[in-house]
Design goal:
6 helices; TPR-like_helical_dom_sf; Tetratricopeptide repeat protein; about 0% strand; single chain; Serine Threonine Protein Phosphatase 5, Tetratricopeptide repeat; mainly alpha; about 130 residues; signal
Length: about 130
């Protein structure tokens, strides 16, 4: 009986950790948004996160494209789109999103992308900044 209780406790801990991680990601994405932008982008970001969780990266990216129209200068939203393009192995989608980031953030992201390229060799040709 105590093994079942222990297993249930671990399941609850993992579930709550995943939920907190999603909440943290949503909070990071909405940084710097006006109240209106947050209100206008929430449905798209929420749907994108659910699609990502289900492995539907293309659908998630499409939702972010809608959100980006409402908050075009949101750097966290742009970084999330770049992350999804990597998960889709579609590095051409990433290029225009990268160009919208300020140079300092592009350079910081470059380090992350170069490390990621170890697992995604096709990425090499798209990180030339």
């Amino acid at each position: 009986m105590s093994n079942k209780l222990h297993s249930l406790s671990l399941c609850l801990l993992v579930t709550s950790t995943v939920t907190l991680a999603d909440d943290d990601k949503a909070l990071n994405i909405s940084k710097g948004m006006t109240e209106y932008q947050h209100f206008a982008t929430y449905p798209f970001i929420d749907k994108a996160m659910r699609d990502e969780k289900n492995g539907q990266y293309k659908e998630a990216f499409t939702e972010l494209e809608h959100a980006l129209k409402k908050a075009p200068n949101n750097h966290e939203l742009l970084k999330y789109g770049i992350e999804l393009s990597i998960k889709m192995d579609n590095y051409q989608l990433m290029e225009p999103w990268l160009e919208k980031l300020p140079l300092a953030q592009r350079n910081a992201l470059s380090v992350h992308l170069k490390l990621t390229q170890l697992n995604h060799p096709k990425l090499l040709s798209y990180i030339s900044y």
